[in-house]
Amino acid sequence: MRSTTTRRGSASLTDGALGLTLALAFWPAFLSAPLAPRWSLMAVAVPILLCRVPHLWVPWLSAKLAGFLLYALASLAWAPVWRIGLWPVSHLAIFCGLAIYAAQCDTDDLLKGLAAGIVAQCPLVILQSLGYSPLVMQAAVPAGLFVNRNFLGEAAMPLIGYGAIKRWPYWLLLPLVFEAIMAADRAAIVGSAAALWLRSGPRIRLASAATGMIGLVALTLYSPWGIDSMSARLTLLGMILPGMSTFGAGAGATTIALYPVAESIHCDALQLLYEFGIGAVPLFWIIGNAFDASRRDADRAALACLVAESLFSLPLEIPTTLFLAALLVGRLHRARAVLCDHGYTRGVEHSFSRGWPAPKPRRAY
């Protein structure tokens, strides 16, 4: 009994340290690619995490993830430059691995560690807001230890919704709120409105939709970069839409299509459709089914925030938000179904007769 408790405590500490390190892993002065430390950390950590799961094959979830990943790999055959396509495919493989891990293991400490790492950047955000930025290779400040202020806001906002419903302590929530406000990101504002819409009643839904629209319009019209950014994204949209096809243009095709104007269209949903066509349907199906999980309001609100952000930004191309999205998808699928002799049954905790915890009755989360 004591050894089991010790193993669980060790795993909990390791998960918390991983989330914390992922949020703080940023050394732009030493690397030409500022995102490289976080991607490298996840590339090493995900195989280690998967060694802890009882089964790599989670029925339905693993099948859809495997189908999507195999199609992404096959699309390299018709991609314009297959070497460029390897980069986004590797990100999707990390997403799939994290989702499978979260579908079978407790990931609360990973989320808390990630939140603590973002909160630890608050003093740096304050300094950057006052005009002092000791870091280099940052596109816009205040960004903390992120490349761009938008990435900071888009990582903090889902955690705010999650932590508020889970009743995290104020010392953890208030710095996240401060960082999200200082980031002033339009996608994060839309994401917060989506989380409130999913969580609240009709009146709050109307108020959240109005607040999201007002915030989006205000940032677009009155910020010094709003109009230029919006017009640039409309230009990118015009470059991408003519190339849409049934089977997609191949992994990494967006980078080639937009060169030398940009590297991404800043809309993950559209980019997946452009590169993979009908091959992206399994991933959309997985994310859509995740919202069926009952009694997981915090996870559903955070995932709704990320889905809304994906319509205006690129959370699946940023390590921290991809990490968060994969964990939420896996957690929701774990809560959504139980594997028994007759397959999946909705509404009860995910378990498995060979190695997983025994089926439990319905209970509040």
Counted beta strands: 2
- In round numbers, the mean pLDDT is 79
Give me the number of helical elements.
Answer: 16
Strand arrangement, major sheet? 1-2
Can you walk me through this structure?
The longest helix has 23 residues, at 2-24. This protein has helices at residues 2-24, 36-50, 61-74, 82-102, 108-119, 122-129, 149-166, 170-183, 186-199, 202-222, 226-240, 253-258, 268-276, 281-290, 297-310, 319-336; strands at 337-340, 343-346. Residues 1-7 and 338-365 have low confidence and may be disordered. A two-stranded antiparallel ribbon has the order 1-2. Helix 2 packs across helix 4 and helix 7 (149-166) runs parallel beside helix 9 (186-199). The chain is 64% helix and 2% strand. With 365 residues, the protein is mainly alpha-helical.
Summarize it.
By secondary structure, the chain is mostly helical. It is 64% helix and 2% strand.
Throw out a few tags for this protein:
365 residues; mainly alpha; two-stranded antiparallel ribbon; 16 helices; 2 strands; 64% helix; globular; disordered C terminus
Question: What are the SSEs and their pairings?
Answer:
Elements: H1 2-24, H2 36-50, H3 61-74, H4 82-102, H5 108-119, H6 122-129, H7 149-166, H8 170-183, H9 186-199, H10 202-222, H11 226-240, H12 253-258, H13 268-276, H14 281-290, H15 297-310, H16 319-336, E1 337-340, E2 343-346
Antiparallel strand pairs: 1-2
Helix pairs in contact: 1-5, 2-4, 3-4, 3-14, 4-16, 5-8, 7-8, 7-9, 7-15, 9-10, 9-15, 10-11, 14-16, 15-16
